[in-house]
Write a structure and sequence with these properties.
With 119 residues, the protein is an all-beta fold. 0% of the residues lie in helices and 61% in strands. The protein is built from no helices and eleven strands. The strands form two sheets. Strands 2, 4, 5, 6, 9, 10 and 11 form a seven-stranded mixed β-sheet that branches. β4 and β5 form a beta hairpin.
Length: 119
C-alpha cells in the first residue's frame, strides 16, 4: 500500500507560478513511476506529467516548457513546478503512483489539491 498526500495548491494570477508537492509513504520501494493528473470542472482527468524510477520524464503537450516534474533526494516526494500559469490550468491536481508487483499494476491516488488561475 502507498499513501499520497498533495500540498501546494492555491490561487494565483495568470503568468504566476506554483509548486505542488506529493509526499509518498508506505511501500514506496515498490513504486515504478509517479504522475501528476488534473481534472477541470466538467472535463475528464488528464495526465500532466510523469517521472519514472530512472528519472525519465514526460509531459502533456499543453504544459511542455512551463511545468517541471522532479523528485526529492529521498525519492519519496515528487514536485510539480508550474510556471507561466494560464486560466486553463485551473483544475484539481492529483498525485498518482504506480507500482508493479508480480506483473500486476497497482494505482494509488492522493486526495487532490485545487489550483485556480485567475485572468
Amino acid at each position: 500500500q502507498v499513501q499520497l498526500v498533495e500540498s501546494g495548491g492555491g490561487l494565483v494570477r495568470a503568468g504566476g507560478s506554483l509548486r505542488l508537492s506529493c509526499a509518498a509513504s508506505g511501500s514506496i520501494f515498490a513504486i515504478n513511476a509517479m504522475n501528476w493528473y488534473r481534472q477541470a470542472p466538467g472535463k475528464q482527468r488528464e495526465l500532466v506529467a510523469t517521472i519514472t524510477n530512472s528519472g525519465s520524464t514526460n509531459y502533456a503537450d499543453s504544459v511542455k516548457g512551463r511545468f517541471t516534474i522532479s523528485r526529492g533526494n529521498a525519492k519519496s516526494t515528487v514536485y510539480l513546478e508550474m510556471n507561466s500559469l494560464k486560466p486553463e490550468d485551473t483544475a484539481v491536481y492529483y498525485c498518482n503512483a504506480i507500482s508493479i508487483v508480480v506483473a500486476t499494476a497497482y494505482k494509488y491516488w492522493g486526495q487532490g489539491t485545487q489550483v485556480t488561475v485567475s485572468s
